[in-house]
């Protein structure tokens, strides 16, 4: 088998009333699994820097294409290991919350919060706190 490309392969989708099932390639593990020591024996020789470098390059590529992921967390970083030579390929997954910037823009105006609790950017958390404070103040008036 040829070592997988940088992108998660899409196979099919099935629409249901309340959700969509999407068939993607099966990866060996998530970064979360590796961090929780569930798969470290399998990746004992893999350098932390290599995983971080590939994640960074993937994010840089998305940002070059003006795509903002908005839900980067260990569970959404997938790892594939080539068993013949031990090389690792890191892939970013779960683009359900992503947004693409219009060509003429370089950033979004934050109008709502998104992302997984515990993994939100500081500016998103400040936005949420500010909105909650404003709502409480309005309710008191």
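^ structure tokens above, recovered residues below v
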């Amino acid at each position: 088998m040829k070592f997988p490309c940088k992108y998660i392969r899409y196979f099919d989708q099935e629409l249901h009333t309340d959700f969509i099932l999407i068939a993607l390639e099966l990866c060996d593990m998530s970064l979360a699994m590796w961090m929780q020591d569930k798969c470290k024996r399998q990746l004992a020789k893999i350098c932390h820097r290599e995983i971080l470098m590939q994640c960074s390059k993937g994010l840089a590529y998305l940002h070059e294409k003006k795509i903002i992921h908005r839900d980067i967390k260990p569970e959404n970083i997938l790892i594939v290991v080539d068993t013949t030579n031990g090389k690792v390929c890191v892939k970013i997954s779960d683009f359900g919350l992503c947004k693409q910037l219009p060509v003429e823009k370089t950033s979004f105006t934050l109008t709502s919060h998104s992302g997984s609790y515990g993994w939100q950017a500081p500016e998103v958390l400040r936005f949420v706190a500010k909105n909650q404070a404003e709502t409480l103040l309005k309710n008191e008036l």
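The two ends are 66 Å apart (CA to CA).
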